[in-house]
Inverse folding.
């Protein structure tokens, strides 16, 4: 594949522009960046519009414009689960976000693990939550990498070998990302989120208006998709859900929604808000992004109607993630395709930055400071965080090599199976201290075991892989007489909850002592720092 | 549950509407060539906004929240929760 010069030029210009913004971000609202609070949470002073962009920047990623359309292209209606997922996320968030924000503001918590330690009085549980959060984030970052890679492949960049590797584009992209997040922390992504969102809206509007017109209207588009799926041997694809995929659809939506705000990076975005009102306002405004996601999903069908075939790698494997870049390349003039590629590329870079910063925070506070060097001061924590951020990105690359699911979206879904195991400790913990900390740990262990077993038993038929092939589990493996599949994460967390409840009851009967809960009911509605609880980093000023 | 939310059940309506695909898994009736399955779910995006806004507005009226400036934990809690 030869290099597409016009598109690449525009892509590079926008990319470099964004990098410059990133370095400039360290000047924005001057603050002592050595303070972890500054580096990790932008000084907790972002107003409603910045928060709106930042939280939005988290939610819409390579998942939105590469992975979901690729699933729609390959499997049909099943891929649309992302729409009900984002619809139900917002009401669910109301029950979690406000309380978590308040108790964190009141007691100076920077990460979700801080909250776990304070609420349940268990350093072990807090450590487990931290590790889980870090591990679960890696496949999600990996998904962003794959999105960037798809764009570069379509531009012809990823395909030449140089110095023994053809991975140069990814290496360069992540070096840029690593460099400016290292320097400016959370402020870098916030500034760039404006640019990213502007680019995405321009491209989406063009895509959803221009492309359907060119292809002859939605009649023709859905018609072409219908024909394609009718001709495939797979009985479960189609523009309508097959009976066997209905449960899978519903559980993917519910499971993904439950998992979303458990991710460290979503918590980071949340805790950066200025007030509860800020969060409430944003919750109501964010569904605009849902609409973007739904419209972009339909790009998968538009690609079918336009006759797009995925790019084939040197090893003969078709890469369905290239569907959307190829569609843009086919339907837009070169210069606009370049802008569209930049939108996708930057749109993957920003969340990757946010995700790795959040995971790094968890490491430095709740693993390094908690267990390795308890005497670590703010400056050391910030430094460790920066280094950890680099390691997390490396872990994401490793994930791509180890896991090889049929659809890239499975990477995020597998991450979801993992992060869902923190749900009882976090979500129930925000409402009650009833659960015994040891029961929560037991529940986590049970959920992780069941989840890992189910993932292991899931094959990737298309690639001939027997294990870790995806996140939909065949119910017949439980001995049930049915074709239906179900989202692994939901079963795993159900087991987790059952064990946590049973364990708490049991430990109650044995009179096992409760953990120390430093929170008070009022804290979950707080707007201010509690007297006597210094905000993190105040000592440095 | 936030005791100040007077209509939390309003928030659950989008869930009921979209978590049971058996009820909307069909192609007809179509709008502008888009099958029912797709426009029904997309339609629930603005509808869920209305639900969320309705809950938020009711919350603000009842508790007399300000314009978004920082308030202490005292002001936000009024009439007997």
């Amino acid at each position: 594949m030869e290099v597409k010069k016009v598109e690449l030029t525009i892509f590079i210009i926008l990319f470099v522009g964004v990098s410059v913004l990133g370095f400039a971000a360290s000047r924005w609202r001057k603050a002592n960046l050595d303070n972890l609070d500054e580096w990790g949470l932008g000084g907790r002073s972002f107003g409603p519009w910045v928060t709106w962009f930042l939280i939005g920047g988290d939610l819409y990623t390579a998942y939105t414009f590469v992975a979901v359309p690729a699933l729609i292209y390959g499997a049909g209606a099943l891929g649309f689960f992302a729409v009900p997922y984002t619809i139900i996320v917002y009401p669910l968030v109301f029950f979690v976000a406000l309380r978590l924000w308040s108790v964190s503001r009141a007691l100076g918590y920077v990460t979700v693990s801080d909250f776990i330690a304070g609420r349940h009085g268990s350093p072990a549980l807090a450590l487990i939550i931290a590790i889980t959060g870090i591990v679960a984030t890696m496949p999600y970052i990996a998904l962003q990498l794959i999105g960037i890679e798809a764009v570069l492949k379509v531009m012809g960049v990823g395909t030449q070998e140089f110095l023994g590797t053809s991975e140069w584009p990814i290496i360069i992209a992540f070096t840029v990302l690593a460099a400016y997040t290292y320097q400016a922390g959370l402020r870098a992504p916030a500034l760039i989120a404006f640019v990213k969102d502007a680019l995405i809206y321009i491209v989406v509007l063009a895509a959803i208006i221009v492309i359907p017109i060119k292809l002859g209207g939605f009649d023709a588009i859905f018609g072409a998709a219908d024909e394609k799926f009718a001709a495939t041997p797979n009985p479960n694809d189609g523009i309508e859900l097959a009976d066997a995929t209905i449960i899978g659809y519903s559980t993917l939506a519910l499971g993904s929604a439950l998992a979303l705000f458990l991710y460290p990076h979503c918590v980071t975005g949340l805790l950066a808000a200025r007030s509860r009102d800020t969060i409430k306002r944003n919750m109501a405004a964010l569904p605009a992004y849902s609409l973007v996601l739904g419209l972009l999903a339909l790009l998968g069908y538009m690609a079918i109607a336009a006759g797009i075939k995925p790019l084939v790698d040197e090893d003969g494997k078709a890469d369905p993630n290239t569907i959307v870049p190829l569609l843009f390349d086919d339907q837009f003039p070169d210069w606009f395709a370049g802008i569209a590629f930049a939108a996708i590329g930057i749109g993957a870079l920003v969340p990757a930055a946010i995700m790795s910063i959040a995971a790094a925070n968890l490491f430095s506070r709740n693993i390094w400071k908690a267990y390795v060097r308890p005497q670590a001061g703010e400056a050391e924590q910030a430094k460790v965080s920066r280094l950890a951020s680099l390691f997390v990105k490396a872990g994401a690359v490793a994930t791509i090599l180890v896991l090889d699911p049929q659809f890239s979206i499975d990477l995020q879904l597998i991450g979801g199976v993992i992060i869902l195991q923190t749900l009882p400790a976090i979500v129930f913990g925000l409402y009650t201290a009833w659960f015994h900390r040891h029961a929560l740990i037991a529940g986590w262990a049970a959920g992780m075991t069941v989840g890992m077993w189910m993932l292991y038993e899931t094959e990737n038929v298309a690639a001939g892989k027997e294990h870790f092939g995806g996140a939909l589990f065949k119910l017949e493996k439980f001995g049930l007489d049915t074709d239906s599949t179900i989202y692994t994460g939901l079963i795993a967390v159900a087991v987790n909850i059952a064990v946590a409840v049973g364990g708490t009851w049991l430990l109650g009967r044995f009179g096992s002592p409760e953990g120390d809960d430093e929170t008070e009911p009022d804290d979950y509605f707080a707007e201010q720092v509690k007297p006597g609880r210094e905000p993190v980093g105040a000592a440095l000023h | 549950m936030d005791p100040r939310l007077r209509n939390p059940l309003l928030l659950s309506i989008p869930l009921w509407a979209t978590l049971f695909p058996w009820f909307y898994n069909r192609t007809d009736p179509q709008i502008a060539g888009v099958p029912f399955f797709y426009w029904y779910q997309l339609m629930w995006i603005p509808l869920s906004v209305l639900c969320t806004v309705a809950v938020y507005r009711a919350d603000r009226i009842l508790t007399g929240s300000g314009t978004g400036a920082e308030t202490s934990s005292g002001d936000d809690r009024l009439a007997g929760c």
Summary: Chain A is about 70% helix and 0% strand. The first strand of chain A starts at residue 311 and ends at 312.
